Amino acid sequence: MEELKMKYLERLSELYPTIASASTEIINLQAILHLPKATEHFLTDIHGEYEAFSHVLKNGSGSIRRKIDDVFGNTMSSRDKQSLATLIYYPTEKMDRIRREEPNMEDWYKITLYRLIEVCKRTMSKYTRSKVRKALPKDFAYVIEELITEKADVLDKEYYYNSIISTIIETSRAEEFIVALSEVIQRLTVDHLHIVGDIYDRGPGPHIIMDKLIRHHSVDIQWGNHDVLWMGAAAGQRGCIANVIRICARYGNLDILEDGYGINLLPLATYALETYADDPCTCFALKGSTGYTAREKEMEVKMHKAISIIQFKVEGQIIKKNPGFKLEKRNLLHHIDFENGTIELDGKVYELLDKNFPTIDPRRPYALTEEEEDIMDRLERAFLGCQKLQEHMRFLLNKGGLYKVYNQNLLYHGCVPLNPDGSLKSVRIYGKVYKGKALYEVLESYVRKGFFALDKKEKERGKDMMWYIWLHENSPLFGKDKMATFERYFLAEKETHKEKKNPYYEFLENEEVVDRILAEFGLPGEGTHIVNGHVPVKSKAGESPIKCQGKVLVIDGGFSKAYQKETGIAGYTLIYNSYGLILAAHEPFESTEAAIEKESDIHSDSTIVKRVIARKTVGDTDIGRELKKRIEDLAWLLESYREGIIAEKI
Ligand SMILES: O=P(O)(O)OC[C@H]1O[C@](O)(COP(=O)(O)O)[C@@H](O)[C@@H]1O
Ligand SMILES: [Mn+2]
């Protein structure tokens, strides 16, 4: 036998030193292969909406409610079922309310514990004992296991069971126990979470979402253009920093930076107040600014204008530094006629809605003033030095990437850039040409270089590449011909605001093109899907998230409040369980408060995208494939023991 093989066999025999231990492991693994496939959830374009996000995580996009229905059927009223569901989502808060109204808490504890244990049993039924054990809270692990496993050798099961429950109540541990059970149910309902990009921007709590994701037991993230923008900012790329601040200002969310990340915006605020003292900055009105005083609003509007102008200048510099990006056309400041307050674009003269540019020198329009330079300098240091932001970005780097292939599904945020004829578009990145998967891979490598490269030039390239990914026509995460930020602020003519999508979006119903993309990423054949976010699905206008007979699922349903008037719903969750693919469309989420008080849930309207003929098992998944390989190796070890090639190690 080859030396290497023998070495491997020896190593394996250290782990499974006897015939008995190797065969037991084979039996265990075989058993796992036959368990139903664990549930995966896919969420996308969360855009800082942490309350809705957290609710969807808690309710498993309706999965917990479905479990309650399965367990109790008609034996429980719909109201009671909803109460039980709310308790599972928000156990502490719900019990605070119940205590105020319930005359007999002891009775309530008994009934509730009984019900929770039943739901718990159902939730755990498809996992191995060892997996369940790992999910159990330390304090209650033993008791929960006693309660959820059938005790064949205990004669009076009911008595045994009741006495455990009574002891829990007598020792005043009922509420803690209820919280523990609820959390286990939540935890095991969603086994794995996929985030298909855009955690950041528009909504108020991306940093809270990141904290939650970091604590989540099993998650992967495909970066969205907004996430990469924040990554670029955290790496100190000035174009990204300016955009991040501008978007926070636009949505009245500067406190994400100030309170959430502790980034000092005072230099920018003072500068904006001075520079635009008498300027109403009407073009820079805020999109969401509830809870602001008039003075606060005034200040934010001025900051919004100040950082936007800085952004246009800084971007001009990046474009000049990187001629390979071919973005000269997007440099617009030098087309402004500052005397007349107009701009010439493609031979046409437009009147500017705002004519006050005290900080732009018409001879050197892209040069920062001394003060602006100083502000950017400080901001750069603040972003680079913010520990929490760096931690969040490190998490994105570790758990994420630009795309993922998982259980026969291809996940990415935006698109695969295509030519008008549907073929893969070739894109030049720092002098070399890439397309399809290779394009994704080179871009991802540059993102990582932007953080980790030792070579200064490569690191700089990596940083600029993050800005490129944010807004470039050839970026798979952006996929539109231009980002019309300048036009949207300064021009009334709507046609100039138009951002034309890459041909990719026209081919979503074209099976040949879709199959080609899937094959490009190593997924030829049946039973594969593309899961895509980024472009809000206008379900109100009759658009369906299910494209190409279910091969493509575009699941950006507008968690972002700003987009709900277009989409008509509050986001989608795709659920992939052992029975197939289900798409849940959520109705707008009012508030956590209402969810607890009124027991209102995100109404999840579910569509079955695909029902499998035979229930999917672990054996059908990526993990299953790995387990099968392990079984093969173990069988080889076993044979080697039996054939005398290797000795047992007892
Ligand atoms: O509506 P807002 O916040 O002004 O943002 C508009 C900009 O956001 C983008 O839609 C990008 O954000 P998304 O990735 O969420 O689509 C740009 O194409 C557009 O210029
Ligand atoms: Mn996006």
From TrEMBL:
Essential cofactor(s): Mn(2+)
> What keywords appear on the UniProt entry?
Carbohydrate metabolism, Hydrolase, Manganese
Keyword Hydrolase part of the UniProt annotation: yes
Q: Is Hydrolase given among the entry's keywords?
A: yes
- Quote the Pfam families the UniProt record gives: FBPase_2
> Which reactions does this protein catalyse?
beta-D-fructose 1,6-bisphosphate + H2O = beta-D-fructose 6-phosphate + phosphate
Q: What is its EC number?
A: 3.1.3.11
Pathway(s) it belongs to: Carbohydrate biosynthesis; gluconeogenesis
Question: Which family is it part of?
Answer: Belongs to the FBPase class 3 family.
Write down the HAMAP family for this protein, in alphabetical order. FBPase_class3
What is this protein's record name?
A: Fructose-1,6-bisphosphatase class 3
The upper taxonomy is: Bacteria, Bacillati, Bacillota, Clostridia, Lachnospirales
